Amino acid sequence: MNQTGLVIVVPEAEARVGPMRRRYDPQASLGVPAHITVLFPFMQPELVDAEVRRRLKRLFRRCSPFVCQLAGVARFPATTYLAPIVAAPFIELTRAVVAEFPDYPPYGGAHAGVIPHLTVADGDARAADIAEQELRVDLERNGPITAHCGSVRLLENSTGRWRAMDEFGLVGHQG
């Protein structure tokens, strides 16, 4: 099924964990950059028209850019991820999108809450164990990953690979 998602791309993390993601996260080989999800799944790509883009642009312009630090390593059963020290800005973005587009709950409504995270390994518990060890060593050696979060990217996968459809700046009080 063709899908879209709204994400904050984290190039600062790609520089550090890109090789691990390519080894342990199948989505990385499909074009998904290092990111923290704002909302997935969103609407099908063919439904994203000029009006939807206008609404997204207006919504995100009201939100301020922020800096996040990824300093924690955490797990779901077959997933290892980096966790932001402060999750609130990501949760607030998700809530804002869901308030504007209530037909699209996070993860299709499968989970009661939202846990902002940057996936490094996914789909295999053994690979997730290895990635967890590698991430802990990296963070101990190099410290947290600091990232500027200044936009939300709309990704789509209608060709089987993920690509950017649009990008919306977080402007907030700056204008």
Structural summary, described in words:
This protein has 175 residues and is an alpha+beta fold. It has a single domain (4-174), classed as Alpha-Beta Complex (Cyclic Phosphodiesterase, Chain: A), CATH 3.90.1140.10. It contains four helices and eight strands, in the order βαβαββαβαβββ. It has helices at residues 11-24, 50-61, 88-100, 125-142, and strands spanning 4-9, 35-39, 66-76, 79-84, 118-122, 145-149, 151-156, 163-169. The strands form two sheets. Strands 2-1-7-8 form a four-stranded antiparallel β-sheet. A hairpin with a 6-residue loop joins strand 7 and strand 8 (163-169). Helix 1 (11-24) runs antiparallel to helix 4. The longest helix has 18 residues, at 125-142. The chain is globular. The protein starts with a strand and ends in a 6-residue tail after the last strand.
Record keyword descriptors for this entry.
single chain, 175 residues, alpha+beta, Cyclic Phosphodiesterase, Chain: A, four-stranded antiparallel β-sheet, 33% helix, 29% strand
- Indicate the radius of gyration in whole angstroms: 16 Å
The CATH homologous superfamily: Cyclic phosphodiesterase
Q: Span between N and C termini?
A: 38 Å
Give the SSE string. EHEHEEHEHEEE
Count of separate structural domains: 1
How many helices in DSSP terms? 4
Spans of at least 5 consecutive residues whose pLDDT stays below 50 are none
CATH class: Alpha Beta
The biggest sheet, with number of strands, parallel, antiparallel or mixed sense and barrel status, is:
4 strands, antiparallel
Named CATH architecture: Alpha-Beta Complex
Which class best fits the helix and strand makeup? alpha+beta
Please report the total strand number as a whole number.
8
The CATH topology turns out to be: Cyclic Phosphodiesterase, Chain: A
| Strand content range | 25-35%
User: How is the largest sheet built, in terms of strand order?
Assistant: 2-1-7-8
| Helix proportion range | 25-40%
Query: How would you describe the shape?
Result: globular
Q: Provide the residue-averaged pLDDT.
A: 95
